[in-house]
Amino acid sequence: MTSSQELRALLDAAVVGIFIIDQQGCIQEFNRAAERLFGYSAWEVVGSNVRMLMTDPDRIDDLGGHVTTYAIDTTGKGREFEARRKDGSLFPAFVSVGPMEGTEPPRLVGFVQDISYLRRAEEDAHRLQERLTHVSRLATVGEMSAGLAHELNQPLAAVANYAQACDRLLGMPTPDIEEVREALREITAQAVRAGDMIHRLRALARNDVLRRAPTDVNLLVTELSELIQHGSKAHDVEYKMVLAATLPPVEVDRPQMQHVILNLVSNAFEALKETHSRARKVTLRTQLLPEGEVEITVCDNGPGISQQIAPRLFDPFCTTKSNGTGLGLASSRTIVRAHQGSLDYKPNSPRGACFSVRLPVVK
């Protein structure tokens, strides 16, 4: 068997696509795996420029340049390309190219892999993470809904009372129209109040596309005050906000970051169920750190986190609640990391738990 026959046999035995090109980028060898990958027979591509297999002529110029230059600059790095099959269909490919030793004139050997399955796996993982985050968000909203339902009864009861008053006033021989108008204005105000509560709850439950924008953290937290206050009353907990005077903006998706904060506060309320102390407290604090990050902390004076649970606290399905999903802290950390931030836990002093969200400021 001649050396050229041996080379051909080795190329055809390979399971990845292999091509050999000269210093002008013309294809000299094309193995069977490459034929299956691109849909071309070897005789259809040999002698043609390798750019026929790619969609981006600017990037592929690197492959067609001088071999010596290419070897110095990029040998062994590998790149992702959008490749083109014979039928015109496109697929993502990873191509690594290097010089062939001892060849004159110089030649390059390229290895091509179809990475479509990797892209699909990444997309599937991303979709799964989005679904888990949405499930966690719905669970958090569900935990807060008991207190919210109690508070909704107040404006709804007021609407009913004012409506009955209107009916009674209009049934009088000489109704006081101004008093009726005042009652109708109160009905409108109470209906708007109830609608605002529901609107905030729906905004937190939506599974919208991530939209980041420069945001005032103090305003972000303040918008949750009414929802959190309802929860604090339902759990008989004293809730306190301590906000820094001025904070630089951070770039976040408002509903997602509010979900994180609401989840941390809800967890604190739940933790305080286990303590019989009369002074059950949750404190939310914002501040600017010397490192140039904005920090949001949620601390309680409950029983804290056991040493056995603490190392696994942010793992999916790890929970200290009897009816918890174990997704809240895991999805919250994922959200914060997607914003280039961090979510961490430390014991509170003298007792309890403290969770801190750190976010980079807008440069």
Q: Fill in the CATH topology of the largest domain.
A: Heat Shock Protein 90
Low-pLDDT regions: 58-75
Strand percentage = 15-25%
Structural class: alpha+beta
* CATH A-level architecture of the largest domain: 2-Layer Sandwich
- What summary fits the major beta sheet? 5 strands, antiparallel
Q: What count of domains describes the coordinates? A: 2
Compile the SSE list and pairings:
Layout: H1 3-13, E1 17-22, E2 27-30, H2 32-38, H3 42-45, H4 57-64, H5 67-74, E3 79-84, E4 90-99, E5 107-114, H6 116-170, H7 177-205, E6 213-215, H8 217-222, H9 225-234, E7 238-242, E8 250-252, H10 254-271, E9 281-288, E10 293-300, H11 328-338, E11 342-347, E12 353-360
Parallel strand pairs: 7-9
Antiparallel strand pairs: 1-2, 1-5, 3-4, 4-5, 6-8, 9-10, 10-12, 11-12
Helix pairs in contact: 6-7, 6-9, 6-10, 6-11, 10-11
Task: Walk me through this protein's architecture.
- The chain is of the alpha+beta class and 363 residues long.
- It folds into two domains: 3-114, PAS domain (Beta-Lactamase), CATH 3.30.450.20; 123-360, Heat Shock Protein 90 (2-Layer Sandwich), CATH 3.30.565.
- Helix content is 46%, strand content 21%.
- It has eleven helices and twelve strands.
- The strands form three sheets. Strands 2-1-5-4-3 form a five-stranded antiparallel β-sheet, with helices on both faces. A five-stranded mixed β-sheet has the order 7-9-10-12-11. A two-stranded antiparallel ribbon has the order 6-8.
- A hairpin with a 4-residue loop joins strand 9 and strand 10 (293-300).
- The N and C termini lie far apart (66 Å).
- Residues 58-75 have low confidence and may be disordered.
